[in-house]
């Protein structure tokens, strides 16, 4: 489902003292009763060359594309997607490609739409003063800054939702190794040197951590939870049966040293 765009219902593009009325290509697609992706293929042409496209044809004829289609984008979530601002001449080209009733209906719709925008332009107030222009520029700069901040926040949020990357998995592995060594009684303990028991402890720690985040692999833990994962490892306590096994094996050392 395509995202709605706050400028979808027509955009006024300024050219010095005049304004050029355009319609977002997504609105044009709605008028034509087709998917936006299909309209883009009609405008740009298909990669398999089954449809040459309007833009390549105009380029061959050395026509100014901005008189017909102005490249633009719209945002959906954290991503940007391609669209075009279609001028009245661009709509006329698209209308000529349609046949029968569909072509007539589209022509009627876009003519009405452009008439609305042209009337809006005619009804505008007198030219802005220098002070008013400065106010508009300041307002526009604030809007752009706000959009940049929002985009950065979206990007940071996206990064934080990614799984562990770079050195982050190694950081967690180091914490688990340190905790496992501590639980076993240190590197000099017999429990630590017992490979079977060591595997059980490290395996149990990893199982415990993955269960907390409902993941099958520890690398699937989200980056924003890395510090929490470290805290969980540090707070780990082995289950009773493993504690008993560690005590039993380490006590054997003490007994042998006494003998």
UniProtKB/TrEMBL annotation:
Residues 134-246 form the ORF6C domain. Pfam families: ORF6C, Phage_pRha. This is Phage regulatory protein, Rha family. It comes from Clostridium disporicum.
């Amino acid at each position: 489902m395509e995202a709605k765009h706050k400028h979808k219902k027509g955009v006024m593009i300024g050219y010095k003292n005049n304004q050029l009325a355009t319609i977002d290509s997504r609105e044009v697609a709605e008028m034509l009763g087709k998917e936006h992706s299909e309209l883009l293929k009609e405008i740009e042409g298909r990669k398999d060359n089954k449809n040459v496209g309007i833009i390549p044809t105009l380029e061959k004829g050395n026509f100014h594309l901005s008189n017909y289609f102005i490249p633009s984008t719209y945002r959906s979530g954290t991503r940007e997607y391609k669209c075009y601002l279609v001028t009245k001449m661009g709509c006329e080209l698209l209308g000529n490609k349609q046949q029968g009733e569909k072509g007539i209906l589209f022509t009627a719709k876009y003519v009405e739409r452009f008439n609305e925008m042209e009337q809006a332009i005619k009804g505008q107030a007198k030219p802005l003063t220098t002070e008013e222009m400065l106010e508009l520029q300041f307002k526009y700069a604030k809007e752009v800054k706000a959009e940049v901040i929002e985009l950065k926040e979206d990007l940071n949020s996206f990064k934080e939702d990614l799984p562990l990357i770079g050195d982050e998995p190694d950081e967690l592995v180091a914490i688990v190794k340190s905790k496992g060594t501590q639980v076993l009684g240190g590197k000099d303990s017999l429990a630590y040197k017992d490979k079977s028991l060591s595997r059980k402890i490290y395996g149990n720690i990893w199982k415990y951590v993955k269960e907390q985040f409902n993941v099958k692999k520890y690398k699937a833990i989200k980056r924003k939870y890395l510090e929490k994962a470290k805290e969980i490892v540090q707070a780990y306590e082995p289950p009773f049966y493993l504690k008993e096994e560690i005590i039993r094996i380490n006590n054997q050392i003490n007994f042998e040293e006494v003998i």
